[in-house]
TrEMBL record:
It comes from Xaviernesmea oryzae. Pfam families: SBP_bac_3 (PF00497). It is found in: Periplasm. The keyword Signal applies. This is Polar amino acid transport system substrate-binding protein.
Length: 282
């Protein structure tokens, strides 16, 4: 395996304020449903987001506003909890969980894959199903009929996430079979991944299915493989009680149909299990 890292290095210095306060409800009309002790700032949720994965979370190029399915889900939850919201843009996904642990934010809303390793250190609430896909330039999909066809190729992937870990795992498995190493190109931004693909700097990208479909729909790429390493996606928290309040809210949203309506709007797959909290000591 060879690694090439593009973009910024792993550092908290790449955390930047994206949006300040968004008032979700007036205190008189909507009593706050989360204890002050469960939040960094009473009555306010500090939410980190990595908005580089359309249509799930991204910055609208025309309005400059945050948009996407995960943004809508998060906004709906916090509005029901009567919390103000302070969104923090985090340009390096690899800093998001350490930032949560360090108390820089209360919640991560950027599609964190649920893993046994992560629930040992943070609290998570599953709410979405997702998997990984392989994207190629239009017309090249036939070159990648199985994951073994990634051997010896240059494959782009986002830094610090589930996709990077699974691509490295796959590379080790292929090498164990005697196949050439994958040349892994690590990027700090999904948009840059696809620019590199378009420019011929990588042979394919290893991204979540929702993003792969979005870029294919735009005519930028073609989906060659999908359904790889399926896993739930979760919201992540530093505080168990806040996580439980969110889980309870999602349960109510599912019962009244609003949760399903958001997913239907984007054509995405809901989490069909219970909205429960998993994390340290649970």
């Amino acid at each position: 395996m060879s690694l090439a890292r593009t973009g910024s290095a792993f550092s908290a210095a790449f955390i930047s304020l994206f949006i300040g306060y968004t008032t979700t409800a007036a205190a008189v009309d909507c009593p706050i449903k989360v204890a002050d002790s469960s939040l960094l700032t009473p009555g306010e949720a500090v939410v980190s987001i990595n908005p580089v994965s359309p249509p799930m979370q991204y910055v609208d190029p025309k309005s400059g506003e945050l948009k996407g399915m995960r943004v809508e889900v998060g906004d709906a939850i916090l509005e029901r909890l009567c919390l103000k919201q302070k969104k923090i843009r985090v340009d390096d996904f690899g800093t998001m969980i350490p930032g949560l642990q360090a108390g820089r934010w209360d919640m991560i809303n950027t599609g964190v894959f649920f893993t046994d390793a992560r629930i040992k250190i943070i609290y998570m609430v599953r709410y979405e199903n997702q998997a990984i896909a392989v994207s190629t330039r239009p017309g090249d999909a036939s070159k990648f009929k199985t994951v073994e066809d990634l051997a010896g190729k240059t494959i782009g992937v986002d830094i610090g996430g589930y996709e990077e870990n699974k691509l490295k795992q796959l590379d080790q498995e292929l090498q164990a079979k005697g196949l050439p190493a994958i040349k892994i190109a690590i990027f700090n931004d999904t948009n840059i991944d696809y620019q590199a693909l378009k420019a011929g700097q990588v042979d394919a990208n290893f991204t979540i299915e929702a993003v792969a479909k979005e870029y294919a729909d735009r005519g930028i790429s073609q989906v060659a493989l999908k359904g790889l390493y399926p896993s739930p996606v979760a919201l992540a928290f530093r505080n168990k009680d806040f996580a439980q309040a969110v889980a309870d809210t999602l349960t109510k949203m599912k019962a009244d149909g609003s949760y399903q309506a958001i997913f239907d709007k984007y054509g995405k797959s809901i989490w069909d299990g219970p909205f429960d909290v998993k994390g340290p000591g649970i």
